[in-house]
């Protein structure tokens, strides 16, 4: 995660201390020493060539391709030959009748997911940390990580199969409670909950790994002295465990908040059906439908760019706030 | 973990521990039961599944669902395609990741920060779907196997993890000593770095392989020819695109027998498609936890 990079970037470079460097410096000027530095690792630059080429072609060229959001993209004229239209497509998106609906759906699912999905792994890690290392603990860990490996397609199938009226396990459960023959996937009001809670089911165990590791790094003397002072288990959790999780949690919260508009396409797209579209259409699925299925390349790119910019602003500002409030931040 | 060795526990603590065990048991049940239900259903007769008799154990044991899966030629093609994309794609992923991560871990590399910034920017900002699609299109990769391999040839997050690993496990002194003895950088990578990096290579291989096996988005946007489809696209066509029809037909009694077999096929298919990942999982679980920790705590 980026926190480390930035820290390492600012760390004093060892170059100056290096014996070979010290020999080189007094002889030539700065320019010569730079050439020497480069020549010293010429093989590494060769090694870097291929991956850097990849970054340029598949990451940076698409970034340049964003210009089509400001152009009327025409396949024959190409990206650079197409005519400029300025902010036309942005206005078209802002003025479209469903603009606020898509924003509302995107933010609604994201925040719901964050409120439920963020504390869940912390709770699991705190509970696991309380019990002895043994078969039960290992079983809970092993089983709770397993759903992480299930593919999105299979995950959505499992959801659908379990919610099929009369047949699925969860729908049978609700039928026992007196709700008969409900097609859960077709009810717009339930879409968010189904999406968020199935995510909790799939990712809580995996998410807990980080927190479990952080808890295992707590100084045992703290627990010892708490015991001497007669602290109960709950007091130990509140005063030792939770404070020790704060740095990790803040970092993960920043990352999550920074991705709030970047709501995953795959799962939502697969869960959509004509009946639940009013709550399930989000920006990323709309970009796909308008752009690739509807071939409005420029319009779709404009929406995508709007989304990326909002995300970047969110990430930078949340990080800024976190840095002001606590010592933990990404950079 | 010292708090677990306490000999005398107060009443409150014992109640608390009871609640913890209760909570964890509920978690265990909530995660395991849907999985068991799917596996059991896949071995049960269609009638038992449709009428809702199956809970935890198979009812009227049968292999009809699996026979239907293996008789479907599409599924076989998808399986082989996925295997190809996973093996070739993962190999390229791991090689490229090391090629980028090792130089970035080298403190004496001139311009290291520049390359690092180049990498980090791609994590914060992206071109978006259409420009990405156009690049692949202009390279004439649409509807080729390369479309499933080249656009995702490198995972930025994996590079960061590997770089952290190299920085913490390969001492600078070692590289300097080798350099003084006249060992070139490339030779150093092959004879020192790679043998020392087996754990991180194992983790990377796992993460990339699972990613390839489970991926469907790139295939959705880049592939049109059915004989190139990976398993996940075929699964989507069978498992999800049929669903809306299935629920509409639910109350037509004549359709029920056929409907039942269709449902059964779904359960069996879910099991068959998850098998490769579930087979690797226990072997790599230890490495996997370690890998997540390298990536998160130190990163």
From TrEMBL, chain B:
<feature type="transmembrane region" description="Helical">
    <location>
        <begin position="114"/>
        <end position="134"/>
    </location>
</feature>
<feature type="domain" description="ABC transmembrane type-1">
    <location>
        <begin position="79"/>
        <end position="282"/>
    </location>
</feature>
<protein>
    <submittedName>
        <fullName>Sugar ABC transporter permease</fullName>
    </submittedName>
</protein>
<feature type="transmembrane region" description="Helical">
    <location>
        <begin position="15"/>
        <end position="39"/>
    </location>
</feature>
<dbReference type="InterPro" id="IPR000515">
    <property type="entry name" value="MetI-like"/>
</dbReference>
<keyword id="KW-1003">Cell membrane</keyword>
<keyword id="KW-0813">Transport</keyword>
<feature type="transmembrane region" description="Helical">
    <location>
        <begin position="146"/>
        <end position="166"/>
    </location>
</feature>
<dbReference type="InterPro" id="IPR035906">
    <property type="entry name" value="MetI-like_sf"/>
</dbReference>
<dbReference type="Pfam" id="PF00528">
    <property type="entry name" value="BPD_transp_1"/>
</dbReference>
<feature type="transmembrane region" description="Helical">
    <location>
        <begin position="186"/>
        <end position="209"/>
    </location>
</feature>
<keyword id="KW-1133">Transmembrane helix</keyword>
<keyword id="KW-0472">Membrane</keyword>
<comment type="similarity">
    <text>Belongs to the binding-protein-dependent transport system permease family.</text>
</comment>
<feature type="transmembrane region" description="Helical">
    <location>
        <begin position="83"/>
        <end position="102"/>
    </location>
</feature>
<feature type="transmembrane region" description="Helical">
    <location>
        <begin position="264"/>
        <end position="284"/>
    </location>
</feature>
<keyword id="KW-0812">Transmembrane</keyword>
<dbReference type="GO" id="GO:0005886">
    <property type="term" value="C:plasma membrane"/>
</dbReference>
<dbReference type="GO" id="GO:0055085">
    <property type="term" value="P:transmembrane transport"/>
</dbReference>
């Amino acid at each position: 995660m980026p926190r480390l990079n930035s820290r390492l970037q600012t760390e004093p470079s060892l170059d100056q201390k290096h014996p070979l460097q010290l020999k080189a410096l007094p002889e030539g000027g700065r320019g010569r020493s730079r050439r020497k530095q480069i020549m010293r690792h010429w093989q590494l630059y060769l090694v870097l060539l291929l991956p850097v080429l990849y970054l340029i072609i598949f990451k940076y060229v698409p970034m340049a391709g964003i210009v089509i959001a400001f152009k009327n993209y025409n396949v024959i004229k190409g990206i650079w030959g197409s005519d400029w239209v300025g902010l036309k497509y942005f206005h078209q998106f802002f003025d479209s009748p469903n603009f606020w609906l898509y924003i509302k759906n995107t933010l609604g699912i994201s925040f719901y997911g964050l409120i439920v999905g963020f504390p869940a792994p912390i709770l699991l890690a705190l509970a696991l940390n309380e019990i002895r290392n043994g078969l039960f603990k290992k079983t809970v860990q092993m089983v709770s990580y397993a759903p992480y490996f299930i593919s999105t397609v299979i995950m959505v199938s499992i959801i659908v199969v379990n919610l099929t009226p009369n047949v699925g396990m969860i729908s049978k459960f609700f039928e026992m409670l007196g709700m008969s023959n409900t097609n859960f996937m077709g009810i717009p009001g339930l879409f968010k909950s189904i999406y968020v809670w199935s995510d909790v089911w799939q990712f809580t165990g995996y998410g807990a790994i980080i927190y479990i590791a952080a808890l295992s790094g707590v100084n045992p003397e703290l627990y010892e002295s708490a015991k001497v002072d007669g602290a109960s288990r709950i007091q130990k959790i509140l005063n030792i465990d939770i404070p020790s999780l704060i740095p990790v949690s803040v970092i993960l919260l920043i990352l999550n908040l920074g991705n709030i508009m970047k709501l995953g396409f795959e799962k939502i797209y697969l869960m959509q059906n004509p009946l639940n579209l009013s709550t399930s259409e989000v920006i990323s699925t709309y970009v796909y439908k308008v752009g690739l299925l509807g071939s409005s390349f420029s319009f779709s790119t404009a929406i995508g760019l709007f989304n990326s910019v909002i995300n970047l602003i969110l990430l930078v500002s949340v990080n800024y706030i976190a840095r002001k409030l606590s010592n933990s931040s990404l950079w | 973990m010292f708090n677990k060795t306490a000999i005398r526990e107060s009443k409150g603590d014992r109640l608390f521990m009871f609640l913890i065990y209760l909570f964890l048991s509920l978690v265990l049940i909530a995660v395991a039961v849907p999985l068991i239900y799917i596996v059991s259903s896949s071995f049960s007769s269609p009638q038992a599944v449709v009428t809702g008799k199956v809970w935890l154990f198979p009812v009227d044991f049968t292999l009809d669902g699996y026979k239907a899966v293996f008789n479907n030629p599409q599924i076989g093609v998808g399986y082989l395609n996925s295997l190809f994309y996973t093996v070739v794609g993962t190999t390229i992923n791991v090689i490229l990741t090391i090629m980028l991560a090792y130089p970035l871990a080298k403190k004496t590399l001139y311009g290291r920060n520049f390359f690092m910034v180049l990498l980090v920017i791609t994590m914060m900002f992206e071109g978006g779907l259409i420009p990405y699609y156009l690049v692949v299109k202009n390279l004439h990769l649409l509807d080729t196997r390369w479309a499933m391999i080249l656009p995702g040839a490198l995972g930025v997050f994996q590079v960061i993890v590997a770089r952290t690993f190299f920085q913490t496990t390969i001492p600078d002194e070692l590289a300097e000593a080798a350099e003084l003895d006249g060992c070139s950088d490339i030779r150093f990578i092959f004879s020192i770095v790679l043998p020392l990096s087996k754990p991180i290579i194992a983790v990377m291989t796992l993460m990339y392989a699972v990613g390839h096996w489970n991926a469907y988005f790139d295939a959705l946007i880049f592939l049109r020819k059915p004989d190139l489809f990976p398993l996940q696209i075929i699964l989507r066509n069978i498992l999800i695109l049929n669903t809306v029809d299935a629920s509409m037909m639910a109350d037509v009694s004549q359709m029920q027998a056929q409907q039942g077999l269709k449902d059964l096929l779904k359960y069996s298919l879910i099991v068959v498609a998850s098998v490769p990942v579930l087979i690797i999982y226990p072997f790599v679980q230890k490495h996997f936890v370690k890998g997540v920790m390298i990536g998160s705590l130190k990163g």
